[in-house]
Amino acid sequence: MSGPDPLVIGADGLARPAWAAADPLLRDYYDTEWGMPVRDERGMYERLSLEAFQSGLSWATILRKRPAFRAAFAGFDPDAVAAFAEADVQRLLADAGIVRNHKKILAAIGNARATVALRESGGLADFVWSFQPPTTPRPVTADQVPTSSPESTALAKALRSRGFTFVGPTTMYALMEAVGIVDTHLLGSHRRGSSGIWPD
């Protein structure tokens, strides 16, 4: 999602960044979901898991596989995934509908267990939101969008201390963008300010 591309005006007259302008799946995700606040545990765990699986791959690949991911991971119910055993790991490794990466699969299961444990400290969603910065970027072009921040670095460190894996600063910044903690919609995009968290 980086590069110097300006906004693209779609056939509907709406301005979007280049990454969301061509592929209908990405366009729908951008128009309806990306950057909107996620405050529930299951929703946050799902997005954290998908961001980890996305590492090294395109987001379009993950979106296309999301229905299969949801089926394979019990709808991203942390309690259900936390109970997965070795037989489930083997089932997931044989599932062509998802990303069959052994380390990422183990991370998703371990992160579910860490999510359950985090309830004693207020829960995953509130924990992630506690790293909201005092300001948000105001990018004009995609190359002005940060890939990490002091807050995402601190969040990554804090999650690792709680037993989470595949939660590096770049992945956590992408999560913060996806769930509305920061607004990196380009200035002039029809979605800028849509979260209601930050003024446009």
Descriptive account of the structure:
- With 200 residues, the protein is mainly α.
- It has a single domain (38-179), classed as Endonuclease III, domain 1 (Orthogonal Bundle), CATH 1.10.340.30.
- 48% of the residues lie in helices and 2% in strands.
- It has a two-stranded antiparallel sheet.
- Strand 1 (8-9) and strand 2 (15-16) form a beta hairpin.
- Helix 2 runs antiparallel to helix 6 and helix 2 packs across helix 9.
- The radius of gyration is 17 Å and the shape is globular.
- The mean pLDDT is 94.
Question: Strands, helices and their partners?
Answer:
Blueprint: E1 8-9, E2 15-16, H1 24-32, H2 41-54, H3 59-72, H4 78-82, H5 86-93, H6 102-118, H7 124-129, H8 150-161, H9 169-178
Antiparallel strand pairs: 1-2
The CATH topology comes to: Endonuclease III, domain 1
Q: Label the CATH architecture.
A: Orthogonal Bundle
CATH H-tier superfamily: Hypothetical protein, domain 2
| Percent range for β-strand residues | under 5%
* Element-by-element helix/strand order: EEHHHHHHHHH
Taking all Cα atoms into account, the compactness measure Rg is 17 Å
Structural class: mainly alpha
* Overall shape: globular
